[in-house]
Design goal:
L-glutamine binds at residues 51, 242, 244, 272, 275, 312, 314-315. Keywords: Amino-acid biosynthesis, Arginine biosynthesis, ATP-binding, Glutamine amidotransferase, Ligase, Nucleotide-binding, Pyrimidine biosynthesis. Pfam families: CPSase_sm_chain (PF00988), GATase (PF00117). It is built from eleven helices and 19 strands. The protein is α/β, with parallel strands linked by helices. The protein has two domains: 9-150, 3-Layer(bba) Sandwich (Glucose Oxidase, domain 1), CATH 3.50.30; 161-379, Class I glutamine amidotransferase (GATase) domain (Rossmann fold). A ten-stranded mixed beta sheet has the order 10-12-11-13-14-19-18-17-15-16, sandwiched between helices. It has a seven-stranded mixed barrel with strand order 1-2-8-6-4-3-9. It is globular and about 65 Å long. The relative contact order is 0.13. Bound molecules: glutamine (GLN). The site of glutamine (GLN) has 12 residues, from strand 16.
């Protein structure tokens, strides 16, 4: 434990339960939805994943920060509202490390709390559901923390995608290429596929995976119109991940409806993008009690074909709200049987609730990028 100070910081949950610990990273107060992530690796990617915008993450892994921060793995310039850990390491040690973890948090103004019983906190969240909370290193008493919480909207009904989406079109230039990116070599000699990606809070690694599979990507803002998209004559259209409640991303749902109706261009959606496809097809989404955030979620339809997947979502599509004439469920989350993948009947359109870009996480689902490319190839 880094017992540098007296206990000087606390977490207050909306139900009044308080945990006292130590502050690290930036000092001050922050409020957001308290969620937990069970991954044992990848804290840099998680903290910079735009899908966590508006949330405070509790890491169940007992110590993070050990491998420092590098210049390649951040998913975006956005970040979480705050982080909660059992312990953090000030002693970063890794050949790729360029920055000390704590220093990075201070520079990014991310408020941290450590030294609390994160197992007890996660048990509360699992039995009561995710809830808003405050972490503070200031002299806030319980009542003022509860007042801050009561002035903070719940995640349900929040459109946060517009806050993290790009405001202008841009062409993505691939950044990191690793051994995992061998397909770049395979696709080097063929014409690139022109993909329009709708940015609801896109992770950089998704763009890198698309590029590795031979796509040239034009990224468009979340409020782009049907005409905007078609004016670029895309071979394929990608709907990204992103934060907030999918049912409030009305521009995106409307765009997906028009594109699905048009139906001629292959489309692929990940996480928020998948939920938007479900809503555009007339389905409904609902809030999960405490969500799925981790790197070991089994998905598939039968015992022979299970993928271990990386996940980060708090909402899901209600399977009973989907028309079986329009859509087929291709994957379930095998832990709780929630919908994890869809494909449209007779249209080159599919989506998954999980994260095949696996950043961080296992690479089992990378074939989905190949599938998207195959659909574009069939159309050539
Ligand atoms: N990673 C994502 O795209 C998350 C989607 C959505 N915000 C949810 O929490 O369910």
């Amino acid at each position: 434990m880094n017992h540098l100070f007296k206990k000087n910081a606390k977490l207050v949950l909306s139900n009044g339960i308080t945990f006292t610990g130590y502050s690290f990273g930036a000092m001050g107060s922050t409020v957001g939805e308290i969620v937990f992530n069970t991954g044992m690796t990848g804290y840099q990617e998680v903290i910079s994943d735009p899908s966590y915008f508006g949330q405070i993450i509790t890491f169940t892994y007992p110590e993070i920060g050990n491998t420092g921060i590098n210049f390649e793995d951040s998913e975006s310039d956005n970040s979480v509202r705050g982080i909660i850990v059992r312990n953090f390491s000030n002693n970063n040690s890794n050949w790729r490390s360029k920055l000390n973890f704590n220093q990075w948090l201070i520079e990014k103004n991310i408020i941290g709390l450590y030294g609390i019983d994160t197992r007890a906190l996660v048990k509360i969240l699992r039995s009561n559901g995710s809830m808003n909370g405050v972490i503070t290193s200031e002299k806030n008493d319980l009542d003022s923390c509860l007042e801050i919480i009561s002035n903070t909207p719940n995640m349900q009904g929040l459109n946060l995608a517009k806050d993290v989406s790009t405001k202008k079109n841009y062409i993505f230039k691939a950044t990191t290429m690793t051994d995992f990116d061998v397909r770049e070599k395979i696709h080097k000699n063929i014409n690139k596929f022109r993909v329009v990606a709708i940015d609801f809070g896109i992770k950089k690694s998704i763009l890198n995976r698309l590029a590795s599979h031979g796509c040239e990507i034009l990224v468009l803002p979340s409020n782009s119109s049907f005409e905007d998209v078609l004016s670029h004559d895309p071979d394929g259209i990608f709907f990204s991940n992103g934060p907030g409640d999918p049912s409030s991303v009305l521009d995106g749902i409307n765009l997906a409806k028009l594109l699905i109706n048009y139906g001629k261009i292959p489309m692929f959606g990940i996480c928020l993008g998948h939920q938007i496809f479900g809503l555009a097809l007339g389905g409904k989404t609902y809030k999960l009690p405490f969500g799925h955030r981790g790197l070991n979620h089994p998905c598939g339809m039968n015992n022979n074909n299970i993928e271990i997947t990386s996940q980060n979502h708090g909402f899901a599509i209600d399977p009973n709200s989907l028309s079986t004439e329009l859509v087929e469920i291709t994957h379930l989350n095998l832990n709780d049987k929630t919908v994890a993948g869809l494909k449209l009947i007779n249209k080159p359109i599919f989506s998954v609730q999980y994260h095949p870009e696996a950043s961080p996480g296992p690479h089992d689902s990378d074939y989905l990028f190949e599938k998207f490319v195959s659909l574009m190839l069939e159309r050539c």
